[in-house]
Amino acid sequence: MQNANNSDLPLDEMLCVCGYPKSGLHSMESPCPECGSIELATYASSFSYYGWNVALLGVGMTVVHGLFLWISLDVGFQPPEILLAPPWVFVSMPLGVLSLLYAVISKVRREPKRKWRRNVGMALLSVMLLPVAGFVALLLYVAGGGLWTV
Asked: Which residues have a Cβ under 8 Å from the Cβ of 69 and sit 6 or more positions away?
């Protein structure tokens, strides 16, 4: 008996649009015994999925960059000027903008299972995390009278 979720099927298995495996049929052009269709299922890539991964990469780069700056300033190491803003400006910001573009394309194409709000939130986090964290650090520095206290 065939498993209902088709989890044990090989990845290159030909499936009907209804999900029925057509490997046991006489030919691929014969109609499906379940739905009667002769069309095969095709996988369409999702811009929503790509947008989520790009935004996640941007947030990861921002977190690593922010931790590097925080630890280097905490131990008294003055990082080179090239490591202060360019990783965020040239990596995290473009990834966030690209993720926003993917979210808009996903919304326009009306993809099923798109998670538009989640992707936009993660993209904005990628773009805005470092400036907001820097502003909060500056406020804490000024409120502490110019001393780094935690």
From this structure: 79, 83, 84
